[in-house]
Amino acid sequence: IISANHISKRFVLGSETIHALNDLSLDIKRSEFVAVMGPSGSGKSTLLHLLGLLDTPDEGSIELEGQATQTLTDDELTYLRRDKLGFIFQTFELIPTLTAKENIMLPAEVAGKRQEAEVRSREIAELLGIAERLNHKPSELSGGQRQRVAIARALINDPALILADEPTGNLDSSTGEEVLELLRKGVIEQGWTVIMVTHDAKAAEYADRIIRLKDGQIESETRTAMN
Amino acid sequence: IISANHISKRFVLGSETIHALNDLSLDIKRSEFVAVMGPSGSGKSTLLHLLGLLDTPDEGSIELEGQATQTLTDDELTYLRRDKLGFIFQTFELIPTLTAKENIMLPAEVAGKRQEAEVRSREIAELLGIAERLNHKPSELSGGQRQRVAIARALINDPALILADEPTGNLDSSTGEEVLELLRKGVIEQGWTVIMVTHDAKAAEYADRIIRLKDGQIESETRTAMN
Ligand SMILES: Nc1ncnc2c1ncn2[C@@H]1O[C@H](COP(=O)(O)OP(=O)(O)OP(=O)(O)O)[C@@H](O)[C@H]1O
Ligand SMILES: Nc1ncnc2c1ncn2[C@@H]1O[C@H](COP(=O)(O)OP(=O)(O)OP(=O)(O)O)[C@@H](O)[C@H]1O
Ligand SMILES: [Mg+2]
Ligand SMILES: [Mg+2]
């Protein structure tokens, strides 16, 4: 469903150049659940941003469903992201002036799918244990509740590809397991493809395979017991 | 060093009232390392905000070094927080327009201790593995690097009491262990008092005792192997 071919990404800051990703290639099949691990600063979030078409690589290319993406216009990229991708960012990125419900519905509003999303938003909120907090704004929620709002927002349009950066980082172990089971179930029953960055070895075991990054390159790949 | 006596905290939102904390009492001795655990939404961050004198309880009182705090003026509270307390928030709260170094030095600038903090900031940055990133702004750092900047900022004034909300949530296990060892060492060698909220049972084992919250009350207290 998505592949990265020899991608590199650099950040220039004054006289320094940071090599966040170095000649990295990766191929992810439809309905696969892939975990990405690695030390802090090893390029995990940068990789997720490039696979999510939120930024472009300095070298190499990204193909989504066989289509090269570097030749697409900004508008075409926006439609592709909106219709096919769901994001769970490391820093939530909720809109502070909107309620939890409005944050969750936003991708559906933008895609013109408000009607069918209304029912889905209540089902997902129940599943994630935040149905009682839908009228709260982000500042009126606990850290873990905000993360669950961000997860619900990513799932509202039933996306083909979900990019999740530390989805269980702020959650207690039982809430975290519910989220992982929801993602796992989505992969098996709805055919979702999930790419999840995590520091938690137990969370990574929910995936089909684990990719470990180090200094912007793939250090190793292992299959989990799921596979 | 700090005690909470029968504290309650409510949030009113429209017609709803949320009881975040209910008649909770707690006594923490100087140079003690206490972990606070509990499900998402159980009141951990709210407790930390009240102990950090960032908010006041609806009922009950908080005493710091034997002194009642609810009768203090805003200025007196600000000086007390500045000189005695260090905070590591769940959502970092770094100032986006300042570099990592400027964010770390800020509490020292405000307290007029810039000279001695200059050396300390370099030592702490080395220890936390962010010495190479001091000129970066928060948006130019990875999630884990931002968290380490927030930790360095909390330690810069050698505070008597450190309030940490999920300090290792965004860190890989080896970086997380370095942070926990740093806190543990500070308690034993510098006499710090640390109150740490965490979901991670392994992190909680670094503390002397573990307090578990449920629905705004203390469900249980256990001593760890450290003690
Ligand atoms: N400003 C606020 N307005 C309304 N409700 C709030 C506010 N802040 C917190 N709450 C509610 O109070 C309860 C306790 O929140 P708190 O942030 O203390 O939880 P927590 O234990 O830190 O959870 P987490 O593990 O998810 O961070 C939650 O149910 C939350 O919805
Ligand atoms: N906008 C930017 N400008 C400059 N450097 C950046 C920028 N974004 C990331 N970096 C650097 O690129 C490297 C990779 O960052 P990335 O966010 O991908 O790490 P990560 O593996 O997600 O780490 P963590 O586990 O801490 O979240 C880091 O060393 C970081 O300092
Ligand atoms: Mg990251
Ligand atoms: Mg919290």
Major beta sheet summary of chain A = 6 strands, mixed
Cα end-to-end separation of chain A? 19 Å
**Could you report the average pLDDT of chain A, rounded to the nearest whole number?**
92
Number of helices of chain A: 7
Say what oligomer this is.
homodimer
Placed side by side, the strands forming the largest sheet of chain A appear as: 6-7-8-3-9-10
Ranges of chain A with pLDDT <50 over ≥5 residues? none
Order of helices and strands of chain A: EEEHEEHEHHHEHEHEE
Helical fraction of chain A: 25-40%
Largest interface: A-B, 34 and 34 residues
Roughly what fraction of the amino acids of chain A lie in strands?
Answer: 25-35%
Structure summary, number of beta strands of chain A = 10
Q: Cofactors and ligands present?
A: adenosine-5'-triphosphate, magnesium ion
Class by SSE composition of chain A: alpha/beta
Radius of gyration of chain A: 17 Å
Shape of chain A: globular
List keywords for this structure.
homodimer; 227 residues; alpha/beta; 6-stranded mixed beta sheet; 4-stranded antiparallel beta sheet; globular; binds adenosine-5'-triphosphate; binds magnesium ion
Structure write-up:
Two copies of one chain form a homodimer. Chain A is of the alpha/beta class and 227 residues long. The first copy, chain A, contains seven helices and ten strands. Chain A has helices at 44-51, 74-84, 100-110, 114-127, 143-155, 173-189, 201-204; strands at 2-13, 16-28, 33-37, 59-64, 67-68, 85-88, 161-165, 193-197, 209-214, 217-223. In chain A, strands 6-7-8-3-9-10 form a six-stranded mixed β-sheet, sandwiched between helices. A four-stranded antiparallel β-sheet of chain A has the order 2-1-4-5, covered by helices on one side. In chain A, β7 (161-165), α6 and β8 (193-197) form a beta-alpha-beta unit. In chain A, α3 runs antiparallel to α4 and α3 (100-110) runs parallel beside α5 (143-155). Chain A is globular. The relative contact order of chain A is 0.20. Chain A binds chain B through residues 11, 13-14, 16, 37-41, 44-45, 90-91, 129, 135-136, 140, 142-145, 148, 165-166, 169-176, 199, 201, and chain B through 11, 13-14, 16, 37-41, 44-45, 90-91, 129, 135-136, 140, 142-145, 148, 165-166, 169-176, 199, 201. The structure holds adenosine-5'-triphosphate (2 copies) and magnesium ion (2 copies). Residues 44-45, 90, 165 of chain B line the site of one magnesium ion.
